[in-house]
Amino acid sequence: PVIAKVLTGFTSGAGSVSAADSILTAIQKLDGNIAAISAPLKYSATFGDGVATNFVLTHSLGTVQLIPCVIKVSTGAVVETEVIFNSTSQVTINTTVAPTSNEYRITLLG
Known about the structure:
With 110 residues, this protein is α+β, with helices and mostly antiparallel strands.
């Protein structure tokens, strides 16, 4: 029979469930693992120096399955740029004019 009891001492964790884990510990690990999987990937950085039109940024998100958005910081307006994913941790942004110091912000979402 199932006995209705309040689950006490629960704190979300993470890790691999083993045969030695209690039911509570196993649930804590599963909850933490699910939270880690569903956490969105996000990287943001400002760029611009008044001279360059090409910027290489390291995001370390581990994937190229990302949606880029570049805005002008002062207005929030979306800026048309070329975004190239060089690897799963690096992106190149090409602009037609040199943005001033930290004029633009890129956000990558995945």
